Amino acid sequence: MKARTHIALATVAAISAAVAANAKPISRIIAEMGLTPADFEVVNATSTAMLSGGSPSVGQERAWVNESTGSKGTIRVQAVQNNCVTLQHVIDPEGAGQTREIRTRRCKDANGNWLMAP
What we know:
alpha+beta
């Protein structure tokens, strides 16, 4: 449980640092994508599970759905470079009427954790 909390806090810190450069809080970015905080938690957990299963490879893909909200999407490894991956997220927020696409970057730290990176 402590490790999971540490990972979540590190992820939020990394996102916050990236967001600070654009002067938008993470909560606003999530809302603009049409996701709820609960949806974001499902996306984050799916990304972490996908990367924790061994060495990521380009094209690897995993679907997610938040049964509580009806939002869903897919996460695809778009690029792998050194200890970092670029993830393509195709998101279908419930009630949004259209899918959205974003990209995130995660890098593996010295402890083997995949953290959000700018």
